[in-house]
Automatic annotation (TrEMBL):
Domain of life of the native organism: Bacteria
Protein's name in the database: Uncharacterized protein
Organism: Paraburkholderia silviterrae
């Protein structure tokens, strides 16, 4: 497959061949009813629930078929690489297949997130990302008239086209299908990410630098930790997200982070061996939510009123703080103004939210 998948199993992976098969053999139905039933009856994740869908991914090339719909190649990219190897150039490949009448099928992807909440700690849940893939055909593989220019080799490999390919009205092929992208034990992921971040930061803090006085020429050797106020107070932002949720009025009200946000995880190891685990939180609201704009015209009380209205739209207390950590709906400057107003006694924040906001102001973070 050409979509994003993890090539190596990691400590936090819950994905198995059995789970992947269950997902792949479940029909796509309205509101994912059949898939949720499969989770409930055929897996250990009986309480799995749907959270959100991401529709921001580009279509990708799938197969090569002829004019009668017969499959020429099951994987476009492998096939085009073989053609380039055999013929030597883009123009030679196109010449070889000028009369072939080959068509490209493509995949329209949606990425659905499901979560099984174990309860307790805010990071104690399993997250499942599942592709819904709809195959379709609407264009020929190769340009119909090379006089208008040829794609370069990278464009041909990506099947990005140059606009001169023969086109037909889009026709779907078969039924949509599910593919399991990843199944993640988020508590394990967060613990591992925090530990690797801390170890890397400790090592960086021990690195020694030379500070030179340009006036006297005197030099002294200091560690990065000694040069950086509050160095050892810093923590991995992902850990802080869940801790802030727990400590805030959102957590006190019983709101669950995994019901309101999903987490786009990444796990990268540098050539030198350094490992980096991170996530980007993704809000899961389905209502249209407008960004807070022109708040510089408002006094502190008016701004706080707008933020409370924002919470009402989202449906939970202190939502604006977490939206301020990611995205552009709430800005960090608005968060700072609220803290300043609270400290000046102009507005009254719940004590727990004041403590979270104060902690953020002392050591800002975001995604």
């Amino acid at each position: 497959m050409t979509h994003k998948t993890r090539g190596t199993r990691h400590e936090y992976d819950l994905q198995t061949d059995v789970l992947a098969t269950i997902v792949a053999t479940t029909p796509v139905t309205k509101k994912h009813a059949a898939l949720l039933t499969a989770f409930a009856t055929r897996t250990d994740w009986r309480a799995a629930r749907y959270v959100m869908t991401r529709d921001t991914y580009s279509d990708w090339p799938a197969r090569v078929i002829d004019g009668e719909g017969r499959e020429i190649a099951p994987d476009y990219r492998a096939w085009i690489d073989a053609q380039l190897a055999a013929h030597g150039s883009v123009s030679a490949v196109i010449d070889a297949h000028r009369e072939s009448g080959y068509w490209l099928t493509e995949i329209r992807p949606l990425l659905h997130y499901f979560v099984h909440d174990r309860g307790g700690a805010q990071d104690n849940f399993a997250q499942f990302a599942v592709w819904e893939e709809q195959e379709y055909v609407e264009r020929a593989v190769f340009p119909s008239d090379p006089r208008w220019g040829l794609p370069d080799v990278n464009e041909l490999r990506r099947a990005s086209g140059n606009g001169t390919e023969e086109r037909i009205e889009r026709r779907t092929l078969g039924e949509p299908r599910y593919t399991l992208q990843e199944a993640t034990d988020m508590q394990r992921f967060v613990a591992l990410a925090g530990a690797t971040w801390h170890a890397r930061r400790q090592a960086e803090g021990d690195r020694r630098l030379v500070e030179r006085n340009l006036t006297t020429g005197e030099a002294r050797e200091l560690t990065v930790r000694e040069l950086t106020p509050g160095y050892d107070r810093q923590r991995w932002p992902g850990r802080r997200f869940f801790d802030d949720w727990t400590d805030s009025s959102a957590g006190h009200a019983g709101e669950r982070a995994c019901a309101r946000w999903t987490f786009n995880t990444s796990d990268y190891t540098e050539p030198g061996g350094g490992r980096h685990l991170n996530f980007v939180p993704q809000w899961a609201h389905t209502r249209k939510i407008a960004a807070l704009k022109d708040t510089h015209r408002l006094d502190a009380y008016g701004l706080y009123g707008r933020l409370n209205q924002f919470d009402e739209r989202i449906g939970m207390p202190f939502a604006w703080y977490f939206y301020g950590l990611h995205g552009n709906l709430v800005k960090s400057g608005q968060m700072e103004r609220v803290l300043e107003a609270a400290e000046a006694g102009l507005i009254v924040l719940p004590e727990c939210d004041y403590a979270v906001l104060r902690r953020w102001q002392q050591d800002p973070y975001g995604f």
